[in-house]
Write a structure and sequence with these properties.
With about 350 residues, the chain is mainly α. About 55% of the residues lie in helices and about 0% in strands. The chain is globular and about 70 Å long. It folds into three domains: about 5-50, no CATH class; about 65-185, Tetratricopeptide repeat domain (Serine Threonine Protein Phosphatase 5, Tetratricopeptide repeat, Alpha Horseshoe), CATH 1.25.40.10; about 210-345, Serine Threonine Protein Phosphatase 5, Tetratricopeptide repeat, CATH 1.25.40. The protein has helices at about 5-10, 20-25, 35-50, 70, 80-85, 95-110, 110-125, 135-150, 155-170, 175-185, 190-195, 205-220, 225-235, 240-255, 255-270, 275-290, 290-295. Helix 7 (about 110-125) packs antiparallel against helix 8 (about 135-150), helix 8 (about 135-150) runs parallel beside helix 10 and helix 9 (about 155-170) packs antiparallel against helix 10. InterPro entries: TPR-like_helical_dom_sf.
């Protein structure tokens, strides 16, 4: 049998013990009524259940909203992380933007054709979407699609995507530039010269416009004009691998083998793991194995230029790929893919 004091302690939660004992068990002042009974029971119930009297409830913080610019920032360094970013952010109402970022990541991970089809659909199906984007956003998707088609070696599809985008944004410089790159691939150099001459050559566009002009002029055999335009492009962006690659081609065609080699070696140094770097390596190999063939016709071109100055800024906008003119006995390089690393159109 329990002694009196122990029995009172057990029965305290039933509100039958005296005030002094109730206070000693609960640690609370000796209040009467239901409030005291409830307060007294809490620690006892907690002890019996093995849980704290007031267990903290887990709080689920809401997901942050999806931001396209944040997702796009992952494209260059770690495109595989875009899926994790999309999964951990709230995309309701931003499904199209999330799909666009995911497609651009596909391009950078080596599947440009599949990504181009997705981007093309985003550009063309906007009017039927619940979260319809304005024409400017659809035009940007069309720009991305055209660039991806070029990366996949599909210039006809690239031209079609760019033409559709220009129907939405007729004055878009990015769309005009990517369309001109596609036209060069299709051998329509005269159209490129006509169009690029009307694109404003401001500081941002000058490297691309002059590079396009130089490439078109070289393809048409206008080497002197090409030399002038590629020099202007290189002065505006001295460490752009695509400009240096094209300048090497033009120098090679003009008989400046040393200048061509300097440009191609610089391309390999700046962009060793890119399409431009691979093309430059191939040209260097040909130049080393058969200098007379690789040099091409001689001309009264300016003397050998000094190599491009060293710098760290490499632009990511990729101009048209080119093909070095060879004699019938020499291999011909195919340059039918843009740099695989794409940044989204503005």
């Amino acid at each position: 049998m329990l002694d009196r004091k122990a029995a009172d302690a057990v029965n305290c939660g039933m509100a039958v013990c005296s005030s002094p004992i109730r206070q000693s068990v609960t640690g609370l002042p000796a209040f009467g009524g239901s409030a005291a009974r409830s307060l007294a029971v809490l620690p006892i119930l907690g002890a019996l259940s093995g849980q704290p009297a007031q267990a903290a409830r887990p709080s689920h913080a809401p997901q942050p909203p999806f931001v396209f610019s944040e997702c796009a920032a992952l494209l260059d360094d770690d495109p595989e992380q875009t899926s994790d970013y999309i999964a951990s952010h709230r995309v309701a109402g931003r499904e199209r933007a999330a799909k666009r970022c995911e497609a651009l990541a596909q391009v950078n991970m080596g599947d440009p054709a599949a990504a181009a089809a997705i981007l093309d659909d985003l550009a063309r199906s906007g009017s039927a979407a619940v979260d319809t984007d304005p024409d400017a956003s659809r035009a940007a998707a069309a720009t991305d699609a055209a660039r991806a088609w070029l990366a996949a070696g599909r210039p006809s599809r690239a031209e079609a995507s760019a033409a559709f985008g220009l129907g939405l944004a007729p004055t878009s410089t990015p769309l005009r530039l990517v369309r001109d790159r596609a036209l060069l691939r299709l051998g329509r150099s005269e159209e490129v010269l006509s169009d690029v001459s009307s694109i404003p050559s401001d500081a941002a566009n000058l490297p691309d416009t002059r590079l396009l002009r130089a490439t078109a002029e070289r393809m048409l055999g206008r080497l002197r004009a090409a030399h002038v335009d590629i020099a202007a492009a290189a002065a505006a962006s001295p460490d752009d691998p695509s400009i240096l690659l094209e300048r090497g081609v033009i120098r090679q065609r003009l008989g400046d083998g040393l200048g061509a080699r300097q440009d191609w070696e610089r391309v390999v140094e700046l962009a060793p793991d890119t399409h431009e770097g691979d093309s430059a390596n191939q040209d260097l190999t040909l130049l080393a194995s058969d200098p007379d063939t690789a040099l091409g016709p001689t001309s009264s071109a300016p003397a050998t230029a000094s190599p491009a100055p060293v710098g760290s800024a490499v632009r990511t906008t990729t101009p048209p790929s080119t093909a070095v003119s060879r004699s019938p006995a020499a291999p011909t390089l195919r340059r039918d893919a843009d740099n695989m690393s794409l940044k989204p159109a503005p």
